[in-house]
Amino acid sequence: MGRSSVRAAAVVTLAALFAGTATASFGAVPEEVTSPVPVEAADGHYIVLLKDAPLATYDGGVSGIAPTKPGKGNQLDANSANSQKYVAHLKKEQADFAAENGVTPATTYQVVLNGFSADLTADQVGKLQTDKNVLGVFPDEIYHPTAAVPSTEFLGLGSVADGTGGVWDSLGGTAGAGKGIVVGVVDTGISPENPAFAGSKLSTKVGSEPYLVGENVVYKKSDGGTFVSQRVSGEQWSKQDYSTKLIGARYFNTGAAAAGFSFKTDYASPRDLEGHGSHTASTAAGNFGVSASVEGIDFGKISGVAPAAKVAAYKACYGGPDPLSTDDDICAGSDLLAAINAAVADGVDVINYSIGGGSATSVLQADDVAFLNAAAAGVFVSVSAGNDGPDAATADHASPWYTTVAASTIPTYEGTVQWNGQQAVGASVTVFSQPEGKVSGNVVYAGEAALAGAAPNEAALCFLGTLDPAKVAGKIVVCDRGTNARVEKSQAVGEAGGIGMVLVNVTPGSLDNDFHSVPTVHIDAQYRDALLAYVKGNPAATVTLVGDNVTGVATPTPQIAGFSSRGPMLADGSDVIKPDVSAPGVAILAATNNAKGSAPTFGFMSGTSMSSPHVAGLGALYLGKYPKATPAEVKSALMTTAYDLVDSKNQPVTDPFIQGAGHVDPTKYFNPGLLYLNGAAGWQSYIEGALGADYWEDVDPTDPSDLNLASISVGALAGSQTITRTVTAATAGTYTASVDVPGVDAVVTPASFTIEAGKTQTFTIEFTNATAPVEEWATGSLTWTGADTTVRSPIAVFPVTADAPTAISGEGADGDVDVTITPGYTGELPLNLFGLAKENVLIDGDETTGAATDGTTEVLVQVPAGTELARFELDSSDDTGSDLDLAVYRVVSETDHRYYQAWQSATGSADEAVQIAQPTAGWYLITADVYAFTAPFTWTATSALVGADGVGSFTAEPAVIDAQQATPTTYNLSWSGLEAGSYLGVVRYGDSQVRTVVSVDVP
Question: Which of 9, 317, 556, 984 is the most buried (most CB within 10 A)?
């Protein structure tokens, strides 16, 4: 974020509303005021979060209850008497609030969230969104799981044969890797019979192994804390399914039930129907040396990343009737929050969250709030980046307090497609078992083999029932990837009599080791044109499928998976690089699902859902070695020791929006050299700076670029900007900086330092755009080099058109003002002027205005097309004893007050303002609330709509600046002939979104 952000101060959307405190209120009982409701709002299930701190971040203030926020290096103790006292306080507060608003909570949260889920009417949604006690009201959205050399061996952890020869050796072998740590997995449940989760029967004997106290499983962890989780019973699940390995398993389905989900297809218990939860749990912390076979084929032994860690499963996702589709699956947001809340309350050390909701639009969604408090409670959180790549700006999970993980490849089971002297390597596990390990035959493109009456485009995708047996029987079929399930395509080929399939990506994507109905090799899009040029219209065409890579060229690894979602994040200023790191996520073999009494199963899966648990497991290993490490320490160590991915030509990939800091390297991360530490106080300051709102008392906003992360991002750079970081030495020594951001000059001060272990060093980096194009990202890295280690951070800088003041002011009927800016490029820079527009008084009020409607007064304003800026403002005569609140809604029409967008300025101060750049034309409802006062006072509500036309001969001299990059220049704004009043104008620089708002007062 640039130092001169154009974001209006103290303006937040209603989805991220915090409130101030009142000092006085109306004494009489007022009439009920009808609050506007969102256009999309409907009667339904919602999550209501209240402003008071949850257990994880409560730092005092309630009489008789001491702070519960854990100190540095400690985890939250949710079971202490004091904690339970505060939980009881929150439960009463929630119950009272719900009763006052006529709401019946379905689920309540106290540990990482303060709030509840409930069925609400649309009117209740509108009312609660403007309540001063409410942090936010979120629809109970539906999410979905984000769906060789073993990955643990590829990561250097140890041999799959005996566990030796790698990182595990330094942790006491596989029996000590992750010992004393509990990994919580929020997902689709778990299969307790799978040998990946085998443990001894629980007893009541107190000791170092988990034991029973009544119906609770108790485990003394390596950090001195205690994990306590209640055993439950349910469908195909008994209390005997817990063990000394699987020490926690709970399920949450209130939100799914409220959404109308039928549990006929999934278990109302922790048991896993989908296999996704078992897969992620066993990847993170499954037992070592588990024999795994799929479809009767033995694939040897597998292990979780932290095989000695304990597992706790929190089921919040349920599978629908179609096993080949995720559209009928459900992860209700309220259930996910309940699962996160329970995991932290139980005392897990790590949470894996392989759940996604699409490209992130904010850093403060409901699950982000939950994870902020989980991290503040000392829990390391690993989340999936999403599977919407390869396009830019598709990544999910934008917040800096958890670790967002991209997916990359590892050496896997491969096959080769050979045709007409050409060949392509791909993924395959169904050809090598054929006679001589190959299949040959005539080949046909599915798009040319459509059954009469079938749509050719559906036939090309090999939909069931679309292929003509007369054209397919005895042949190998080329099927395009997309739309329907991959294994459904081979089923269609087999049902039409085909003997094999080439599955080809239409756009770059993952290569997946599925178990197909016919022998199959899955190849990437780069080979499609050449293959189809040979096959289409050629009845004599033949291909051979080989069950190995026989091209003579080893497939480079690790490469980013085509499906892996990318940055940059478009959420709240783009001042945080995401993803954070990459990890194995393609063709990962792990445990899957089984019914009670059935044999355990295993399967290959691909997705960032698979990469995230690798990082969760690495978090468990790190905490096993350093039990007092904070989540930020774990994340920093993973990031600064990461290495570059490679592309298909084995060349380094350096784009941080693809790989984050790079691929995790367990062989180095225990010795990171320097650490970038941050915590709840820094996250709160970051939020206030990024969202431009006053959320917490006694918290000052900071430039989001200055959050002490192991990555560096400047979302708007014109001229120069200096960012600050502080490192803590894990290893003493002298460290020297080198920095490279092509097109951007970067100066590190100091460029070298000597430091003792445990001490801190602050440094700055001054960025100045030299030759980098504006309005595009420039990326690079900073590396601190010590005697035996390097500490690398990714950098992303976005040069903008100009660094200009957000606002300036002048006065007088005739006047002028000089404005100094720093251009971001050399050349002509037009100054586009709008206004001046006179402020109109909408309400001329006093302390009694709106008393009959709970202090609220509403006014409609029509905003015309072409408006550059709209500003709505409340101004009190008593800046110390009054509290006004302002909300602005873009409504459907003059008479229909359902709204499309909403803005609110509701601090504890007297004056409030909402400023909207380039507002959509239409009707806007302005609501002004006299929230509190201590004595009689007067106030006004005003609006100013700034367009291309204006008054006062508003002029810039010069109108076009002869800009020199990074060289400050001054221009003059003038006006004349204004009447008494207040005026607003705008200067927009070139075609950019950089603006200076000009205020002129005429006495």
Answer: 317
Q: How far apart are CA 218 and CA 846, in angstroms?
A: 61
DSSP letter, residue 535? H
Handedness of CA 331, 336, 338, 343 (dihedral sign): positive
Return mean pLDDT, the chain: 91
List the single range of 74-78, 631-635, 762-766, 810-814 with lowest mean pLDDT.
Answer: 74-78
- Distance between CA atoms of 286 and 277, rounded to whole angstroms? 12
Exposed e or buried b per residue across 120-157, where buried means at least 16 C-beta atoms within 10 angstroms of its C-beta = bbbebbbbbbbbbbbbbbbbbbbbbbbbbebbbbbbeb
Do the Cβ atoms of 619 and 383 come closer than 8 Å?
A: no
- Beta bridge partners, 49, equal 115, 136
- Does residue 609 carry a catalytic annotation? yes
| CA atoms within a 13 Å half-sphere pointing along the CA-CB vector of 99 | 6
Q: Please, which residues have CB within 8 angstroms of residue 170's CB and are 6 or more apart in sequence?
A: 670
User: Does residue 215 contact residue 203 with C-beta atoms inside 8 Å?
Assistant: no
Please give the biggest Cα pair distance in the chain.
94
Residue 130 and residue 53: Cα distance in Å, rounded?
A: 19
Minimal CA–CA distance to 367: which of 411, 325, 400, 334? 334
Q: Residue 305 corresponds to which amino acid? A: V
Question: Strands, E, within 428-518: which ranges?
Answer: 438-445, 476-480, 500-504
How does strand 581-584 pair with strand 403-408? Answer: parallel
Rounded Cα distance between 431 and 438, Å, is 6
Among candidate residues 89, 144, 276, 614, the one labeled active-site is 276
Show the tokens assigned to 637: 């160590």
Q: Flag whether pLDDT at 324 surpasses 80.
A: no
CA 899 to chain centre: 27
Sign of CA dihedral 236, 242, 246, 248: positive
Let me know: does 776 contact 799? Beta carbons within 8 Å: yes
Catalytic choice (151, 334, 399, 609): 609
Q: Of 367, 360, 346, give the one whose Cα is nearest residue 397.
A: 360
Contacts 24+ apart (CB under 8 A), 286-290: 286/196, 286/197, 286/311, 286/590, 286/591, 287/195, 287/196, 287/197, 287/198, 287/245, 288/163, 288/174, 288/177, 289/160, 289/163, 289/174, 290/194, 290/195, 290/196, 290/591
The confidence band for 17, taking pLDDT boundaries of 50, 70 and 90, is very low
Which structure tokens are listed for 17? Answer: 């509303």
Say if CB 710 and CB 793 are below 8 A apart.
yes
Secondary structure string (H, E, C) spanning 655-722:
CHHHHCCCECCCCCCCCCCEEECCCHHHHHHHHHHHHCCCCCCCCCCCCHHHCCCCCEEEEEECCEEE
Between the CA of residue 822 and those of 302, 380, 407, 748, what are the distances in Å?
Answer: 58, 42, 40, 22
CA 75/CA 83 separation, integer angstroms:
13
The arithmetic mean of pLDDT across residues 546-550, rounded, is: 93
Strand, helix or coil at 403?
Answer: strand
- DSSP per-residue string spanning 780-848: EEEEEE-SS-EEEEEEEEEE-SEE--SEEEEESSSEEEEEEEEESSSEEEEEEEEEEEEPEEEEEEETT
For 193-229, how does the pLDDT look when each residue is reduced to its tens digit (9 = 90+)? 999 999 999 999 999 999 999 999 999 999 999 999 9
**What letter would DSSP give residue 430?**
S
β-strand 226-230 against 297-302: which pairing, if any?
unpaired
Q: How far apart are CA 239 and CA 920, in angstroms?
A: 57
**From the candidates 77, 140, 187, 468, which is the catalytic residue?**
187
Give 293's Cβ-side CA count (13 Å radius).
5
Contact in structure between 380 and 351 (CB atoms under 8 Å):
yes
Q: Beta-carbon neighbour count of residue 817 at 10 Å?
A: 14
- CA–CA gap between residue 454 and residue 422 (Å, rounded): 32
Identity of the amino acid at 986:
V
Q: Which token pair is 256? A: 């799914």
Annotated active-site residue 89? The verdict is no
The verdict on whether omega for the bond into residue 836 sits within 30 degrees of 0, i.e. cis, is: yes
Q: Which two tokens mark 996?
A: 């200076």
Dig out the tokens for 383 from the structure. Answer: 């989340």
